[in-house]
Amino acid sequence: MDRYDAEVERLRAAVNCATVLERMVLGWRLDQAESTRRALKYRRGPGEIVIVNHDGRGWWDPQKLPAEVGGRGDVFSLVQRLDPTLNFGQVRKVLRGLVGIAPTYPAFIKRRRGDHDAVPPALRWEARRRLRRGSPTWRYLTEERCLPSGVLALAADSDAVREGPYGSAWFAHRANDGRLTGIEMRGPHYRGFSPNGSKTLFRLPGSRGVIARLVVAEAPIDAMSLAALERIRTDTLYAATAGGMGPDTIGTLNGLLNDLAGRACCGLVIATDADKPGERYAIHLTEMAAGAGVPAERVLPPNGLNDWNDALKVRTGRGVL
């Protein structure tokens, strides 16, 4: 066994899957009432469940079919499930930082009526400020994410982005009738999705006119980055799925594709990440477009980069090839 293989096995043995859930993404808590010694049930928000088994060395998602990709595995695959943008080398770096840290098993408490998380996403959205030039959220998006002010102005005008706490950005997910269904939250030190909300699509319309082209990325920041790189095509709706595609996202996408099929259009542009999860999403989206009779193409970030925000950073001179 070479040195590389030895480290992989050491990390598998030294890092508990429960520790990864607790430390890597905020919100995962242990449902003690539904856990056993051999199977610890972790929850995060409505419908998100991961079972930690094999004394912390394995995990599985009870909401996926046994043979479905991404439904079970070891500590390495769990890190990639929580952040599909990471490659194997980056996963190893994450796990090195978790060696020797024991899980704390924070208790999951079922919310009572009136609790903060029970507030409908639409009301939480209305309680936040609209995106303003010079605010901490604006600076995070322009300085750290390199998004130009023109794209942010369009996002503000479309009410697609609002200001979250601590400089975070809140991205609206909306159904095809314009109804807000959930809020994707991203900041310098946090990422998550609103409790009691459903993932449909983040959308940034290039204009208020007829849309003839649909761009689908994984994250709102990537959709906005591609809009910046394309100088905001006015025939295009730039959308993002928040990573995976649940039934509400699929239903929303099917509705948009059916609308495109009924008119002369440029079709679907698949702008998912240049990695294995991105490839799986691209295959699924291609099949959906074919079913609706809409032409589809996949575009990849240039120069072997992983996502469109990386490409934007390089274009602006603040990224590394």
Commentary on this structure:
This protein is α+β, with helices and mostly antiparallel strands. It has two domains: 94 residues, DNA Primase, Chain A; 200 residues, Dna Topoisomerase Vi A Subunit, Chain: A, domain 2 (3-Layer(aba) Sandwich), CATH 3.40.1360.10. It is built from eleven helices and 14 strands. Strands 6, 7, 8, 9, 10, 11, 12, 13 and 14 form a nine-stranded mixed sheet that branches. It has a five-stranded antiparallel sheet with strand order 1-2-3-4-5, with helices on one face. It starts with a helix and ends in a 6-residue tail after the last helix.
Terminal CA distance: 33 Å
CATH topology of the largest domain: Dna Topoisomerase Vi A Subunit, Chain: A, domain 2
Order of helices and strands: HHEEEEEHHHHHEEEEEEHEHEHEH
Strand element count = 14
In the residues, how many domains can be counted?
2
Strand content: 15-25%
* Helicity range: 25-40%
What low-confidence regions span 5 or more consecutive residues with pLDDT below 50? none
Q: CATH architecture of the largest domain, please?
A: 3-Layer(aba) Sandwich
What CATH first level of the largest domain would be assigned?
A: Alpha Beta
Radius of gyration: 20 Å
- Mean of all residue-level pLDDT scores: 89
The shape is globular
Q: Give the quaternary arrangement of the chains.
A: single chain
Q: Can you count the helices?
A: 11
Structural class: alpha+beta
What characterizes the major β-sheet? Answer: 9 strands, mixed
